[in-house]
Specification:
This protein has 66 residues and is mainly α. It has two helices and no strands.
Amino acid sequence: MWPRFPTQSRHLWLKDAVTRVKERPGFPSLEDSANLPDPDIIAQEIVDDLEAALAQFAEIASDLKK
């Protein structure tokens, strides 16, 4: 879900988020692209991360109902 900002602010928010991710240590640069894992491995890592995040949100939601 996007923050409730006008369209321009939403664009700037996304651009800022992408910039912060790219500045993380270990984020692959274009020079490193030849050393990336196969796409199926990357896709599975994304799925695993999303499932873990969903489980954390479900736990938070459950705690909020108490």
